[in-house]
Amino acid sequence: MTNSYSVRIHNRQTGTEHTFQVPEDRYILHSVENQGGALPFSCRNGACTTCAVRVLSGDLYQPEAVGLSPKLREKGYALLCVSYARSDLEVETQDEDEVYELQFGRYFARGKVRFGLPLDED
Ligand code: FES
After folding, report:
1. Residue 41: exposed, middle, or buried by beta-carbon count in 10 A (0-12, 13-18, 19+)?
2. pLDDT (tens digit, 9 = 90+) per residue, 40-54?
3. What is the pLDDT of residue 108?
4. Which amino acid residue places its CA nearest to atom 3 of ligand 1?
5. 67 lines ligand 1 (CB under 6 A)
6. What is the DSSP string of the chain?
7. Which residues pair with 54 in a beta bridge?
């Protein structure tokens, strides 16, 4: 028997809020899309941060979120394309490129993209 959780998404770009039921063994992004929700994404495998959100409440599990530094995970960011709900959740979409710029800075955002683990420095 699979649990499912209620995931409330505040889309700051469109000013809308929607709630979806997400089984614990399905990626949140995929479940939301199956229910007609539209969220930003690009790589769909935890690398690019396009799908990043801020977690306002609740727990999720994102073992494959290699594109997100431990520091940003601790700050409550998550990559919905590789996240599983572990409780009811409330999340909000990030500002455009917010997570990317927090990790790589504007220098990299201008085109000097490097692949590999993000530098985790202040
Ligand atoms: S779509 Fe790229 S990290 Fe989620």
Report:
1. middle
2. 999 999 999 999 999
3. 52
4. 46
5. yes
6. ---EEEEEEEETTTTEEEEEEEETTS-HHHHHHHTT-----SSSSSSS-TTEEEEEES-EE-TT-TTS-HHHHHTTEEEGGG-EESS-EEEEEPPTTHHHHHHHHHHHHTT----SSPP---
7. 77, 92
Q: Which of 27, 39, 45 to mutate to test the pocket of ligand 1 (most atoms within 8 A of CB)?
A: 45
- Name the burial class of residue 51, with classes exposed (0-12), middle (13-18) and buried (19+) by CB atoms within 10 angstroms of its CB: buried
Atom of ligand 1 nearest to the CA of 51: 4
The amino acid at 111: G
User: How many of the other CB atoms lie within 10 Å of CB of 35?
Assistant: 12
Q: Cα(78) to centroid of ligand 1, in Å?
A: 10
Distance 43 CA to ligand 1 centre (A): 5
Which residues of the chain fall short of a pLDDT of 50? Answer: 109
